[in-house]
Design a protein that fits this description.
By secondary structure, this protein is α/β, with parallel strands linked by helices. Helices cover 36% and strands 22% of the residues. The protein has helices at 45-52, 74-83, 100-110, 115-129, 144-156, 174-189, 201-207, 225-230, 232-238, 244-254, 268-274, and strands at 4-14, 20-30, 34-38, 60-65, 68-69, 84-87, 162-166, 193-197, 210-215, 218-223, 288-291, 304-307. β9 (210-215) and β10 (218-223) form a beta hairpin. α4 (115-129) packs across α5 (144-156).
Length: 308
């Protein structure tokens, strides 16, 4: 991970009311990574994101994008914001155009792109977020989940190198939250670095390949999910719970149903594959694994129970 697309070096920032939001924070974001940022409200997550995009200017330290120090003249900031897009937590604070198509086309049009290129980008962004059928809908009549997708398409139409999302699953039901995370996985698979903040440790553990833990304007923990969620002292300090999958894995080890140590499973399927299979005498077929969430055969890919 020697190639970093975003870096913060000893970043300091205080708001006009005197609140010190960042305290000498240093962090580096690997190019092409999926990064989850954890921390309680007030930890400084949003403030850090606004520095990555140049919306806020540090009172100390520096931000680098693609190896170069961020400059704060108008032209440099416009170039930065084409490459680093932020999806805000509340889509209503981001959407303002009359229709979905107009909303998504606003950014590319401001780049001075030819009309056909604007259309290509808007249509590609709508396909990626699966909202093509909404293109003529008024934005104010959309559901909350639909607005979330439009706000993400807003950023994708700019074709950035980095997408930053502040609490992308906040106020979404489980099905729509899962769809949004699948969307970010697809975005990342296409080569885009994705950074998101979340309070959901289960999402952070299963989705991210890098986790940052923030507290009082500092990064107090950084590493792959397995490292972060093994560290009980770090989690207690940051007031974070372990993911349910990790709790279950540790409990099975304590009961002697799994050997101590070993690689920490990242999915429910991986966990259940570790449990020795015991078949009832005379049974003709192996136990079928079913998902707990949908009651359908999982093929061992999700949380399941053996039904003999």
């Amino acid at each position: 991970m020697g190639d970093f697309i975003l870096e913060a070096d000893r970043l300091e920032f205080s708001y006009p009311d005197g609140t010190r939001a960042l305290r000498g924070l240093s962090v580096r974001i690997p190019r092409g990574a999926r990064v989850a940022v954890l921390g309680s409200n007030g930890a400084g997550k949003t403030t850090l994101f606004l520095h990555f995009n140049g919306i806020l200017r540090p009172t100390g330290g520096r931000v680098r994008f693609d190896g170069r120090d961020v400059r704060y003249d108008h032209r440099s900031l416009m170039q930065l914001r084409r490459q680093v897009g932020i999806v805000f937590q509340d889509p209503d604070s981001q959407l303002f155009s009359a229709s979905v198509f107009q909303e998504i086309s606003f950014g590319p049009m401001n780049l001075g792109l030819p009309r056909e290129e604007v259309r290509r980008r808007v249509e590609a962004a709508m396909r990626s977020t699966e909202i093509t059928e909404l293109k003529d809908k008024p934005t104010h009549l959309l559901s909350y989940g639909q607005k979330k997708r439009v706000s993400i398409a807003d950023i994708l139409a700019m074709e950035p190198s980095v997408v930053i999302c502040d609490e992308p699953t906040a106020w979404l039901d489980p099905r729509h939250a899962e769809q949004v995370m699948e969307l970010f996985t697809r975005i990342n698979a296409a080569g885009t670095t994705v950074i998101l903040s979340t309070h959901d440790v289960d999402t952070a553990y299963s989705w991210a390949d890098r986790v940052l833990v923030m507290m009082h304007g500092e990064v107090i923990g950084e590493g792959v999910p397995e490292e972060i969620f093994r560290d009980g002292e770090l989690l207690a300090r940051a007031d974070l719970a372990r993911p349910r999958l990790v709790q279950t894995w540790l409990a099975l080890q304590e009961k002697g149903w799994l050997p101590a140590g070993g690689a920490m499973p990242r999915t429910w399927g991986e966990l259940f594959a570790l449990i020795p299979h015991r078949q009832s005498p005379g049974a003709e077929k192996p136990a079928q694994v079913y998902t707990l969430e949908r009651g359908k055969p999982s093929g061992g890919a999700a949380c399941g129970v053996g039904l003999g």
